[in-house]
Every structure is written in C-alpha cells, then in structure tokens.
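Reviewers of the previous submission asked for a worked example of the structure-prediction workflow described in the proposal, so we include one complete record here. The input consisted solely of the amino acid sequence. No template or homolog information was supplied to the procedure at any stage.
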Amino acid sequence: MDIYLIKLILAHLIGDFFLQPNSWVKDKATKKLKSGKLYIHVAVHIALIFLVFLSFSVWKVALSIGLLHLFIDGAKAIFQTRKNARVLFFIDQIFHFYTIILVWHLFFNGHLDINYLNDIKFWILISSALFLTMPTSIIMKVIIAKWLPESDDESPKSLQNAGKYIGILERVLIFIFITTNHFEAVGFLLAAKSIFRFGDLKEAHDLKLTEYVLIGTLLSFGIAIGIALVVKGWLG
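From that input alone, the workflow returned the following structure tokens.
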C-alpha cells in the first residue's frame, strides 16, 4: 500500500479516535453546525496532515480533507438522532475513508490493487467465512433443537442474541486461525470459553443445560474446524 495513503489514514485515526474527547462529540450532537468543537475538530485533522507529512507543501491535500471532513461531520450532526446514532457512526467512517482514498487518488495518483477480486481463492475464503455465520447458526439450531432445555427461556441476565453472536465470532476466529496456520490459538479459544462458561454452568445446577451447552460448543467448533481444514486443503 502507498505510504501517502497510510499517512492520510493515520492522521484520520489519530484525529477521530485519539484527539476527539467525548465532550466534543456531545457538543457537536447538541449544537449541530453551531458547535465550535466541530470546527476545532476539523482544524485538528488539517494540522495532523501537516504533521504526518512533515511539510506544508501538502496544503491542498490538508485543505481538501478538512473541507470534506467538515461536510461529512456537519451532515452527520444535522441528521443524527438517538435512534440512528450507531448506524450514522459507521456511515460517517465509511464516507471519511472514501474521501481519503479519493483525495489520495487525485493528488498522489494513487491506485488500489483490486486484482484479488478476480482470484477464486478470495471468493472461496469469503464464502466459507460467510457460511460459518448465520447459515451455520441456523443449521445448529435445527440440529440441537430437540435437546433444548425447557427452562431455556430468554433470561434478563443475558444479552439479547448474545449466544448466537458469540458462536459466530468463535467460528470465524477458528476459521482464521486454521487457515493462517495458528492451530494453537484454537485451543486457547476453547480454553477461554470453557473458563467463562464454567461459572455459569456451575451456578445453574442443571445437567441438561450443561449437556446442551457442551453439544452446542463442540458442534460449533467441529463445523468451524472441518470447514477450515477443507478450505485449507483445497487452497493448498
């Protein structure tokens, strides 16, 4: 990747996540375009570009990034509500990175290499990882539904759908570990989950629940390991 693009991304990360206090974020959300913190935040981003490049010759780049950042953050402040704040955060970051790449392309003649999109290995990896998310969750639910303990209702002590997302994350991590030849990390993951689950199962005093959790965990790990080994062998 081009060093100029790396520097622009670094400046953005420092400006948005290290040098932007929560008080500034709240001030922008409350006062919208009247927030002085919005303009200070943009000025920080401009200054950071000069800093990472150690040169004032990039003033056109810095000014372009600053104006685009002001436009994006201003639009976010105007349209943000409590309900859409989470979604707008990700949309905001996507637009920031898009404008960074655009400015990099215009001022440094940068070009992203996307030849990997024509590589069958890339699509095999993406398809396999995707299969280990929701499709595998549904398949497992069908398989172990008959063993579901009667007392396994939605508990107020448990986060909504937490088990499903924990399973998805563990399977994707296992897939990554095995396809990158880090088999030892799989054992570490299993040990870590066992430790955290031990307390819950000990307090539950429910043999059926314990067996249900063990079946689910082993099935989840087994499917992930199996898919990862098949893909690894296929790709060589």
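Residues 3-108 form one domain. We consider this example representative of the routine output the project will generate in years two and three.
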